[in-house]
Amino acid sequence: MYIFAIESSCDETAAAVIRAEDDKITLLSNVVSSQIEIHALYGGVVPEIASRAHCEAISNVSREAVETAGISFSDIDAIAVTFAPGLIGSLLVGVSFAKSLAMTLNVPIIPVNHIEAHVAAAYLENEDLKPPYLALVVSGGHTSLYEVSDYATFNEIGGTRDDACGEAFDKVGRVMGLPYPGGAAMDKLAAQGMELFDPKAKNALKFPSPAVADDTLDFSFSGLKTAVINYIHTEKQKAKSDTLPDEKRCEIAAAFTRTVCDGVTKKLAAALKSTGTKTLVMAGGVAANSHLRKAVGETCAKYGVKFIVPSLKLCGDNAAMTAAEGYYMYKLGMTADLSLNAFASDEAAEEYMDSLRN
Fold this sequence. Notes:
Strand order of the largest sheet: 3-2-1-4-5
Helix content: 40-55%
Number of helices: 11
CATH class of the largest domain: Alpha Beta
Structural class: alpha/beta
Shape: globular
Oligomer: single chain
Radius of gyration: 21 Å
CATH superfamily of the largest domain: ATPase, nucleotide binding domain
CATH architecture of the largest domain: 2-Layer Sandwich
Order of helices and strands: EEEHHEHEHEEEHHHHEHEHH
């Protein structure tokens, strides 16, 4: 069967096509239209502008995905679409387009949770991956640990109580003067800083851990983000300049990134021990960070856990991951009718998914 998928939860308009035969998924196309240049002018995503840009791009992106896959729209057997969580205006563009197409083609529509789709990206490159396993999702809006008991059942056992990991990276990068989005630049600066500065040195720069100091598996990035931003402002005042020397930026990036990695792996280690899992999947936009990939990989190796992370092209928002999760939901009979709506929050999304299971 052919599944066409749409992803529009934030600032990427994406469409993809997969072919699924006997649980073997083949990715035929994966088209992403980014809005980075638009939102870079504002230092972050502007919701209203994002939804308007989705309206402009979605038809062409969808057509390109189908043509690249070498099929026609009439060959499509089902349509998967991200319906939650995310920016409500952006989600509504994708959901409305998907519903119209599903009605025209008379095919089922599959509502996909954006977070679960990130995890499902791992299925596209790992044919042997099957639940149960533990998932760590690190993105601009989420930092959570899930027990994945089957393809459509995710039990959150730990998460952030305030800011997400990716949000902290973006805001620190912006205050440091890095271009939006700051992930790649921050990654490079951190690598340089780790070569220049010894974290064990007496005067090494330290920041508060995002690992909540209790027996839960929760995170809190708000204090870390605020501490780093305050430090940057103080250094700028000392230098009487709106910019920092390159060496100082490298030092801050390295200390901040190391603190994030240490905090995440601390809670991850506790989760691995408490669940006894044999496989960990890390997914989401921040899973592209080279330092976090290395730290999580080393933690898994320490506990004898298989570590799976999607390739860089599948870490960011894309529709291939939506199609992958959509396929398994379709097999479980979790399809929607044309009354499908979009939801901005995780809670509303989960409530709707429960209604499909029942």
